[in-house]
Amino acid sequence: MEHTKYLIAGSSHAALEAINAIRMHDAEGPITVVTRDSHLPYSPTVLPYVVSGKSAPARIFLRDEDFFARNKVSYRPESALKALHAEENTAELADGSSIVYEKLLLATGASPAIPPIPGIDTVSYHVLRTLDDALKLRGAIGASKQAVVLGAGLVGMHAAENLVKAGASVTIVEMSDQLTSGYFDKVAADMIEQAFRDAGAKIMTGSRVVRLEPSAAGAKLTLENGTTLEADLLLVATGVKPEMAYLNGSGVEHQQGILVDDRMQTTAANVWAAGDCAQARGFFTGTPVMNAILPDATIQGRVAGMAMAGDPGMQDYAGGVPLNTYHFFGRHAISVGSSKVPEGGEVVTRFDEQTGRYLKAIFTADGCLSGIFGVNEFFDGGVMAQLILRRIDLTPLRERFVANPLAVGREIMSQTWR
Question: Per DSSP, what are the bridge partners of residue 320?
Fold first, then answer.
């Protein structure tokens, strides 16, 4: 049976950051990476640009084979984790082989969450989570005339824009009463919606699909209000959920994701988790939350890697802060932090209708930034997240900050960064 000191299941941002952290403290300990994907590591965030043709598939990989060779890492694609026997420090792979590890990182990411719509198993549909998904969708877009996108999160909206630009008649169906409800407020969502309507897309918010069935075009959708839609291309973009079937009987506790402490340690000895599969402490709530974003995956991966290697310089995870950026029809939107106004807090907004610039900043009762959201506004999301995490009092600079969050945010961080 194969043995390794560090076993990493998964190959995207959390896994790669963990490798870097381990090698900073342990230059020689054997590392084995197993992943269900058949490719070199890539970021799911680049997939919409593969679909659009802006990013060539051959140029999207985060690391090459030489990286793994230099870092003495055995990289094993098409090696999905099938079962975990934590009490024996053993991982079983889908091909029937097993690996004994000393330390294990679960960075297995997430997969598309397919809604339980009656008839969904009778029609063909696309998802967008892997490179193979992106290539398949890219090949289908050019032939589509009537496309329906289920879900108005960022993945669905990116794909819908590509379909519009390819000349398809596009309908976006969303259960919530607004687009991008998990990221932006109603004002920002209305601006995004208007851009899509101006480009010719149809928007159906507050709509639920109750039945799917094959049709001459491809698929027929029936909505709760009785409306029917025909689609020759159907994209299901209704969110993601972690793959956790391999945890059955493992002793690793999980809810929405794999439960971890502030060192990314799971409830099982010698097992850590990071990235989209991990349910870690939320910065605002103090309770375990899912925060499936790229910046958080890198932070969690670094913490996990340092903890696994016993690096004395490791600092506990500070908690998840949402951060999302979105580009649409030549415009951009960004959201950082919580949209909830804390008790005694204050909301400051400004909106220039002529330029289409919108900014909303939320402050706590003691003057700290809690959330900031903008459309066609320029500010550094990473800096904003640090202002939130460090609980910096912005009261003396609030007017300047709201007027120019990019410059003032960087000014503050240059003075306080340690």
Answer: 282
Beta-strand runs (E) in 206-299: 209-214, 219-223, 228-231, 233-236, 240-242, 258-259, 271-273, 278-281, 288-289
What value does the mean pLDDT take over residues 179-189? 92
Distance of alpha carbon 31 from alpha carbon 99, whole angstroms: 12
pLDDT in tens, 130-153: 999 999 999 999 899 999 999 999
Can you read off the two tokens belonging to residue 8? Answer: 């990493």
Instruction: Name residue, tokens 């490719």.
Output: 39
The answer on pLDDT for 5 being more than 80 is: yes
Q: What is d(CA 134, CA 274) in angstroms, rounded to the nearest whole number?
A: 24
Helix (H, G, I), strand (E, B) or coil at 372: strand
> What is the phi/psi pair of residue 13, to 5°?
-60, -45
* CA angle, residues 188, 189, 190, in degrees to nearest 5: 90
Q: What angle do CA 385, 388, 393 make, to 5 degrees?
A: 140
φ, ψ of residue 89 to 5 degrees: the values are: 55, 45
Percentage of the residues of the chain whose pLDDT score is greater than 90: 96
> What would the pLDDT profile of 193-234 be if each residue is shown by its tens digit?
999 999 999 999 999 999 999 999 999 999 999 999 999 999
105 sits in which H/E element? strand 98-106
368: which 2 tokens? 């700290």
Q: Going by C-beta distance under 8 Å and a sequence separation of 6 or more, which residues neighbour residue 69?
A: none
Rounded to an integer, what distance in angstroms lies between the CA atom of residue 347 and that of residue 408? 18
- Identify the bridge partners of residue 236 per DSSP, sorted by sequence position: 150
Beta-carbon count within 10 A of 38 CB:
11
Match 């994209």 to its residue by tokens.
235
Confirm if 192 and 203 have CB atoms less than 8 A apart.
no
| pLDDT of the residue at 418 | 64
Give the Cα separation of 17 and 303 in Å (integer). 9
Task: Tell whether pTM > 0.90.
Answer: yes
Closest listed residue to residue 92, CA positions, set 80, 103, 77: 80
Report the mean per-residue pLDDT for the chain: 95
3-state secondary structure of 304: helix
Contact present, 84 and 100 (Cβ < 8 Å): no
Task: Say how far apart CA 409 and CA 407 lie, in whole Å.
Answer: 6
Say what the pLDDT of residue 401 is: 97
Backbone angles phi, psi at 9, to 5 degrees: -100, 110
